[in-house]
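hiii so my PI (J.) wants the whole complex modelled not just the main chain, which honestly fair. so below is everything: two entries, each one labled with what it is. i double checked the lines twice but i was tired so who knows lol
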Amino acid sequence: MNPLTSPLLTDLYQLTMLQAYFAYGMRETAVFEFFVRKLPPHRNFILAAGLEQVLAFLEQLRFDQDELAWLEQSGLFGKDFVEHLRGLRFTGDVYAMPEGTVFFPNEPILRVVAPMPQAQLIESRLINLVHFETIVASKAARSVLVAPDKLLVDFGLRRAHGAEAGLLAARASYVAGFSGTATVLAAPLFGIPIFGTMAHSFIQAHDDEAAAFAGFAKVFPNSTVLLIDTYDTEAAARKVVALAPQLQRAGITIKGVRLDSGDLAAHARDVRRILDGAGLTQTTIFASGNLDEYRVRDLLAAGAPIDGFGIGTSLVTASDAPYLDAVYKLQEYAGKPRRKRSTGKATWPGRKQVYRHYRGDGMLEHDVVTLEDDVQPGRPLLQLVMKDGKRVDGFAGFDVLRNYTKGQLATLPQHLRELDTSSEPYRVEIAPVLRELAAKFDRQTASVQHSASSDVLVV
Amino acid sequence: MNPLTSPLLTDLYQLTMLQAYFAYGMRETAVFEFFVRKLPPHRNFILAAGLEQVLAFLEQLRFDQDELAWLEQSGLFGKDFVEHLRGLRFTGDVYAMPEGTVFFPNEPILRVVAPMPQAQLIESRLINLVHFETIVASKAARSVLVAPDKLLVDFGLRRAHGAEAGLLAARASYVAGFSGTATVLAAPLFGIPIFGTMAHSFIQAHDDEAAAFAGFAKVFPNSTVLLIDTYDTEAAARKVVALAPQLQRAGITIKGVRLDSGDLAAHARDVRRILDGAGLTQTTIFASGNLDEYRVRDLLAAGAPIDGFGIGTSLVTASDAPYLDAVYKLQEYAGKPRRKRSTGKATWPGRKQVYRHYRGDGMLEHDVVTLEDDVQPGRPLLQLVMKDGKRVDGFAGFDVLRNYTKGQLATLPQHLRELDTSSEPYRVEIAPVLRELAAKFDRQTASVQHSASSDVLVV
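here's the output for the full assembly
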């Protein structure tokens, strides 16, 4: 059983509900929508990501022999139900905002239309995938906004929450505009550019720091980035300068140096001066070490001569907002709108579309959430991406996707680009038809819930 | 290439360093230790977890044909180096604190002794595994401490950071003392008890809430937990009461009800009264919905009659401390102690052991970190768990492990059990021999680094 693809990577209640749906033949069409209830702290917008992984998951969804055998012997489920699961595939439709779309609370970014058991079963993993890539893309976009012309590299694998988080964080940050990642596997699996320098252990394993530099440079004559903070940053920079002429004679160019600790702005200025003083003006300075978008912003504001940033833990854990209040809720079943009214968690019923309106200068103005059949002015954001369980289009490729994201970020007005929470949140209007539908549903539910006699219900 | 096992799930610099080690024949024994530099906010102790996954990873470590082919065609590595990787296996020793051990900053909890390339290559994934399970176990332990007699269930899969995070969070919280998880796959893969109720969508898919309750109960006659907050919690509780006699006649007992929104303490009291008033004193109340250890503590302090808690997002993302300053650092190479002196990131050199001292009442008093060969009084915490790449013992099983954790948590003095940060942090002494070794290393390094003439180094 592979956790990355297994339908058993789900909550137990999905399977118990499926057994109940099976028992009562409840296979009518269900409509679920994924949306975020509210902005997390420190965010003025959210950037959608993860759709690609969801579509791949849906296309391959099936219970294999091991999984069926385990379900049967677990004693939790009936034999006929387990047999029924053998044939289960995802045959529904999916509508979604493209990855890289800027979105806001209460806006569905993904809608699933499928027979109830299918639409229900996929809930846990669908949220798991979209939620995670979206929090990382949203975090990464903030660094992209403050350092649009710098090399930004994901350095987070080691403190990502498991293997898939490390891998998908590389993808999500690349979707958002990062230059690449240090995670090797992202290259063969996704085609994402990979970057790497050297670690302190390499320096430490040598008795002499300069010997470590020279040795490393010789093995990688065209791409050497030397880590210079193991003992004394400025002293190490002078060793690099001393080595450079000999390396040059051997055809080796030191591409850059990396700072990983201390006062990065001060070290960068000192090191830049040392390098420039020796004519090494093309040698770049790369910084890492507990960085996030705030520190990057402050370093650049301080004029630190840094060419690139490795951003790790804060990025891949989205540390200041490690989760979204993201949900996947039933909006319609068997042709009837559905709604949950739980305190603080009420939902808008029905199949919805989001229309985006722009100001004269092309910046975002406001969005309108309405019913799918209430066609409105503005640009509709949800598109059909899967029909009858088959993708409408293949993956367009990262060039197209990253260009789309860039265009999306370019429409953010200044107050939404700031790292601090804006006092003027983006306006998302709930259309009158949606409010009317919700009110109508509430009236009907109240009458049904109060009039139902329960004595006809059992057995 | 399977992200969960692939050696390419690593940072690029590990592979570039390996190529340099290969070029220079640097295969001497390296000693790396994993430790946490400082406590994160809101934590008075850390609970070790993830060792089992690390040992499994090391035992199966190898590059498969696809991975070797990709490395070769990448253009980043030499053909002979890639050929060399074909035979790479982990043949080293591992010393570790058992999972479930309470530990503190600057204490190595895991030591790897292996030829340098092996010890280096595994860094990223080793940290990735231990770091994540440890943050979740540490978070989970806090709920266990405030609600030792309650049913505690991991509900976090959907907002965990990817598939492996969901799965390992189930494991780590179970290690810490949770009763189980909602994540189905944790049962077949780990043998962890699974729990599930029903979701709002099941209720919503019915026109009548009571019909949904009755229908679900009929399918699960012995284990029904009904979700009662979809529309009106107290009204739903009265529906449960009205249904109960009929269900009973059909041989069906309602095991419990679940609250998922609103003022949980008030609802729990109202619902308890409604249930008890109808003689349903055995029907339990289970609560969920944005819970964490603080809310659990407060609900219990308020006397809320709640029998169990589903804790999700806050647990699996360790949301108030989603990462540790956890590192894996070279402490010795080729028989010589090694040390990094980077500002704010200096390490203690050499192979270390941690000795624990207890007060007269069995509570923790203080720990001493010293060199392995400086045998001291107190209980040594690091044990040999892998020898020459083979595990010393198999997994002892969760009964043993959970019992061990319970014993560990029982040794926490009151000020370390509090949810808020203690003003009196636990005392971890660095032994004099360790300080002397560090000072000696610094003197030697300074003389080597300053005397080295770099003109002998290149080519």
